Amino acid sequence: MKPKALFDELEKGLLQLFKAADLYNFHLIALARNEDPPGQLIKDIIATNTISTYSIFEGLYSKSEQEEFAKRGYLRAIGDQILLATYTALECYLIEKFNEYVEWKGKDKEERTIACARRMRRSLDDIRNGYSEILDIHLAHFELNESWMSPYPDFQPSTTWQRIREIENARHEVAHRGRADSCVVRFLSNAWEPFDFARRWVTAFDANFDSLIFHGTPTPMIKGYQKRVAQVRGDD
């Protein structure tokens, strides 16, 4: 399976988690408002490949509901699992994409490459170093254009790479402490934002670097990346 196809399958599973959480959330909202759950909307979500806007925008909640959800932490546990799974999907993609490019370049039998590949599951830094040392791809300098960015006010680190690092950090917190404190999930949107960013990043990285690696054609996004790398290196 191609790396992007693998990520797409993992993405489908994550979307199913969002759907399940969405349905649970409808019942929480109905209880808070002393109303019946929206039966037709629930049926539509179950029958189609969709989620509600409550999974994406926390502004749909009243101020009192926002305070209650934040205090009670109704959605925190499932949101933490979504954060963990989001990083896992991203990590799997990066490792498999590394292997694909390595094989294409004929470096898969080199001892140094094999050693880098073995280290990659230890941390994001090891993944970054493997790409840099073996493929001369500098992940931290690949930035998404504004048109690729998701406009979420609660998830706006200074760089694209910093966003990925925050997802990794949340994953480590969940895996080792049982909950993410750096990215607190009060509403489903708090988990949606990192997930949506990750899939945007993977789509952009895959398309742009495939164009460069397989076809030798630098896209505008790649040209911006190459300029940033040259500036760091001090190249002309």
Question: What distinguishing features does this structure have?
Answer:
236 residues, mainly alpha
What topology does this entry show?
Layout: H1 3-33, H2 39-47, H3 63-72, H4 76-104, H5 111-119, H6 124-135, H7 160-177, H8 188-215, H9 220-233
Can you walk me through this structure?
With 236 residues, the protein is mostly helical. The protein has one domain (3-203). It is built from 9 helices and no strands. The longest helix is centred in the first third of the chain and has 31 residues, at 3-33. The radius of gyration is 20 Å and the shape is elongated.
Mean pLDDT: 89
Could you give the order of the helices and strands?
HHHHHHHHH
Structural class: mainly alpha
Count all strands and give the number. 0
Assembly context of the chains: single chain
Largest sheet: none
Whole-number count of domains: 1
The helix count comes to: 9
Question: What low-confidence regions span 5 or more consecutive residues with pLDDT below 50?
Answer: none
Q: How far from one another are the termini?
A: 40 Å
* Shape assignment: elongated
Radius of gyration over C-alpha positions, nearest whole angstrom: 20 Å
- Strand residue content: under 5%
Query: What is the share of helical residues?
Result: 55-70%
